[in-house]
Automatic annotation (TrEMBL):
Belongs to the CDP-alcohol phosphatidyltransferase class-I family. Keywords: Lipid biosynthesis, Lipid metabolism, Membrane, Phospholipid biosynthesis, Phospholipid metabolism, Transferase, Transmembrane, Transmembrane helix. The keyword DNA damage does not apply. This is CDP-diacylglycerol--serine O-phosphatidyltransferase. Pfam families: CDP-OH_P_transf. GO terms for molecular function: phosphotransferase activity, for other substituted phosphate groups. The chain crosses the membrane at residues 7-25, 31-54, 66-86, 98-118, 130-151, 163-188, 200-228. It comes from Rufibacter radiotolerans. InterPro entries: CDP-alcohol_PTase-I (IPR050324), CDP-OH_P_trans (IPR000462), CDP-OH_PTrfase_TM_dom (IPR043130), CDP_ALCOHOL_P_TRANSF_CS (IPR048254). GO terms for cellular component: membrane.
Length: 236
């Protein structure tokens, strides 16, 4: 029975992704979709942790995890970019002269998410760290945008809803997903300071950012994650 528990958690991740797509495309409710993706990310972290604790690894679990991630962290950010770019063309002065098909470029991030997940499954270098930005991290950046629009304590609406900014974010993260960039994983073999310095520093700063900046901190946290990986690759 215990071997099925991680797979059940993975299926809940997949369900969250499916519901997020429904709210994005049916109701244009990006905020609800964003919270569903946050829940999917928590479940994605939990299934691996539970599998390690229960020693319940399986090949089907590995494949199911990738398929669930493709929906929650591949299709969802593409669909969200589609809606954000559509809105930007309608509301931003910069969008009046741009082609009607521009919002569909949001699905570039979906394509590269698929490539990143396929690479991860066959790359033996990524057992305890990552090469390229993980799909959940990329997606958390994207889903933070509608949350910031709803909160917007810093007047960032005009920046976020600039179609060139959204296209730039799409292309940048599409590249980062498959780039040969070594990044640390939040996998603790122990909770000792030694060997986990970069992880504790990252988590501490992330908490401080969230307390001070609310949801606006999310893009900064993703940027911090990438920056710390560059500064101390030996800790990865």
């Amino acid at each position: 029975m215990k071997k099925h528990i991680p797979n059940f958690i993975t299926c809940l991740n997949l369900l969250c992704g499916c519901l997020a797509i429904y709210f994005i495309l049916k109701h244009n409710d990006l905020t609800t979709a964003a919270y569903l993706v946050v829940l999917a990310a928590v479940l994605d972290f939990m299934d691996g942790m539970v599998a390690r604790v229960l020693h319940a690894y399986s090949e089907i679990g590995k494949q199911l995890d990738s398929l669930a991630d493709m929906v929650s962290f591949g299709v969802v950010p593409g669909a969200m970019m589609l809606q954000l770019m559509t809105r930007s063309l309608e509301e931003s002065p910069a969008g009046t002269d741009l082609p009607f098909w521009l919002p569909f470029t949001g699905f570039i991030i979906t394509i590269f998410s698929g490539l990143r997940l396929a690479k991860f499954n066959i790359d033996t270098r990524q057992t305890s760290s990552f090469i390229g930005v993980p799909t959940p991290a990329s997606t958390l950046f994207v889903i933070s945008l509608p949350l910031i629009l709803g909160y917007d304590a810093f007047g960032l609406t005009s920046v976020i809803l600039n179609p060139y900014v959204l296209l730039g974010i799409t292309l940048l993260f599409s590249y980062l997903l498959v780039a040969e960039l070594p990044l640390f994983a939040l996998k603790f073999k122990s909770f000792a300071w030694k060997g986990n310095e970069i992880r504790f520093i990252f988590l501490g700063l992330a908490v401080l950012f969230l307390i001070g900046l609310n949801v606006t901190a999310i893009p900064l946290i993703i940027g911090l994650y990438i920056l710390l990986s560059f500064l101390k690759p030996s800790a990865i």
